[in-house]
Fold:
Amino acid sequence: MENKKENGYNIICGRNPVLEAVRSGREIDRLLVAHGVNGGSVTAIIAKCKAKGILIKEVSSQKLDYYCGGANHQGVAVLFAEQEYCQPQDILNYAKEKGEMPFIIICDGIEDPHNLGAIIRTAEAAGVHGIIIPKRRSASLNATVAKSASGALEYMKVARVTNISNTIDFLKENGVWVFGADMDGTDYEKIDFNCPAAIVIGNEGKGIGELTAKKCDQIVMLPMNGKINSLNASVAAGILMYEVVRKRRSQN
Structure:
């Protein structure tokens, strides 16, 4: 979502992320459109911005490249004031408002913004109530994350916390069961996810931290039947998220 700041603003770029940002009701300062770009979804974006009274400004493609930090902007971007992260309690409140058991993803050191964006996209589709990331050693909500999430970031609550271990304690105190994804665990198909659940997905190379693993109620694993011993973090997260969906549907 946010890229480098420009005059105190952050940037969303790419046609689908921009369209979802406008649709979501986010307070947008201005729409930037590259010279000569029009038609299709760009026309729809411009029309929606005009209807909402959002300032529209034409800029050169080179300037848009600079604003978006090299991300594939597809000729459009929006400037907006920095979005605040939510709190873990906000995620629990959201689940309660929906009358659903909490379903949370904890990213313990996901550093690749493409992975974080992919996790957010799958999480939104799977009905996850929120994602928790640490302040340090983690990808932030930048333009690459927003692009990889393909608009899903607009509908996903993201909490950014100082200490993952303390946050796990907080969730457990509120009745949430915490499952860590690691190779030394129980086969995920044998786990009963029909409960308030948080799944911890670890760093792309190191996995979940030792202290984080100790805080989890249970460690779960995905069987590896090939020659490699691990999956991409976002792929593993997607499999586990939809296993939660499957288990909950089968028991309700």
Remarks:
- Strands lie at 10-13, 28-34, 55-59, 76-80, 103-108, 130-134, 158-161, 177-187, 197-202, 218-221.
- The domain at 10-80 is CATH 3.30.1330.30 (60s Ribosomal Protein L30; Chain: A;).
- The first strand starts at residue 10 and ends at 13.
